[in-house]
Specification:
The protein is α/β, with parallel strands linked by helices. It has a single domain (2-211), classed as TIM Barrel. It is built from six helices and nine strands. It has helices spanning 53-62, 84-93, 107-115, 133-136, 144-155, 174-183, and strands at 2-3, 5-10, 19-23, 51-52, 69-73, 97-102, 121-125, 160-167, 190-194. Helix 3 (107-115) packs parallel to helix 5.
């Protein structure tokens, strides 16, 4: 694998764990409030720095006395299903804990990673009420059943996890927020995140008709 970004040390991306953060390139959603817009295209922008897998593993190996885990985020990491399991096995061989951030669109990939016990923590973004997902993620065809499968799979995995939602006012209403709460399984943590209007995929989207 190659990575679009590498943060050597983070105290906030993996709850309770000092971690490094790796960013994959490419996302299958087009959420206008995305705060990593440069990671959305499949091809990185001109001038972007790529981090080779072998170099990343070497860096992580050299930092094992200071870093307990690794966060693999994006973009959407599960789009790299052909390469992701082998890379996570290399992290396991280093004795590192692994957290995956995902939008939940590819439950089959999650299931395979759980089956191999390659994940110690999963964070899934629940972006909107199911009925509004296609509109708010910019995807005319949105497989809501797959997202629901991922929620059920993560909640029942026995792996530490959280679901999280970015509060984008006025794109989402109080009734939307209540509908989102109802989508979270009982007993699973749910975190509200703050919208960052200074960095997003579509800066003018709040003035559009996405509100309804």
């Amino acid at each position: 694998m190659t990575f679009a970004g590498f943060v050597p040390l983070s105290l906030c991306d993996y709850p309770g764990c000092v971690a490094s953060v790796l960013f994959t390139q490419g996302c299958n959603f087009r959420c206008p409030w995305c705060h990593n817009p440069h990671l959305v295209p499949t091809t990185p922008p001109d001038g972007a720095v790529a981090h080779d897998e072998d170099a990343v593993v070497d860096m992580l190996a050299s930092r094992r006395t200071r870093v307990e885990g690794v966060v693999v985020t994006g973009g959407e990491p599960t789009l790299h299903a052909a390469e992701l399991p082998a890379f996570l096995r290399r992290l396991r061989a280093l004795g590192l804990r692994i957290k995956l951030d995902t939008n939940g669109a590819r439950p089959a990939v999650l299931r395979a990673l759980f089956d191999e016990c390659l994940l110690d923590y999963v964070a899934m973004d629940v972006k909107a009420p199911w009925a509004r997902y296609a509109t708010l993620t910019g995807m005319p065809v949105c497989d809501v059943a797959a997202l629901q499968d991922s929620v059920t799979l993560i909640a029942g995995s026995g792996v530490a996890h959280q679901f999280r939602t970015t509060r984008v006012d006025p794109l989402l209403s109080e009734s939307d927020y209540e509908a989102i709460r109802q989508q979270i399984p009982n007993g699973s943590p749910h975190v509200w995140q703050t919208f960052r209007p200074d960095v997003c995929l579509a800066p003018g989207f709040l003035s559009t008709d996405l509100h309804r």
